[in-house]
Amino acid sequence: MLLNSISSYRSRFEGLLPAESPQRVPRICVSQPLVPGKNPERSAIVTSLSLHGFERISEDAYLHRETGILLTDAAPRNVRIVDGNPVPFDAIAMMATDAVIEWVLSRGC
Asked: Is the separation of the CB atoms in 32 and 13 below 8 Å?
């Protein structure tokens, strides 16, 4: 839901898949539309995400201070730039914890 909230991309939760063995947990099944284009350079990802309020806090990780959304694994393999806008399709979006915010502030970001 968070990833969908920050772009026009739409991931859908399809359901849970049974565990493959007793030592494993069930898996989440999602579907995602194909996003055309090539893998962008990291600099293009930094630029496009910054236009939407995300600041780079480490390689492939971005924080939106107003919303508290932390975007990780926003690597070139997981993002496309469509009409100048970032489309993170396999990045991980979550709410930043207090510990993450403290870490960012301690680094002077």
From this structure: no
Tell me how far apart the 2 most distant CA atoms of the chain are, in Å.
46
Asked if residues 62 and 38 have their Cβ atoms less than 8 Å apart, the reply is no
Classify residue 48 as left (phi > 0), alpha (psi -120 to 50) or beta.
Answer: alpha
- Name the phi and psi angles at 15, rounded to 5: 150, -175
C-alpha 32/C-alpha 97 separation (Å) is 27
H-type alpha helices, 6-64: 42-50
Other Cβ atoms less than 10 A from the Cβ of 63: the count is 22
- Phi first, then psi, for residue 31 (nearest 5°) are -125, 150
pTM (two decimals): 0.80
What tens digit of pLDDT does each residue of 49-79 get?
999 999 999 999 999 999 999 999 999 999 9
Domain extents for the chain? 2-106
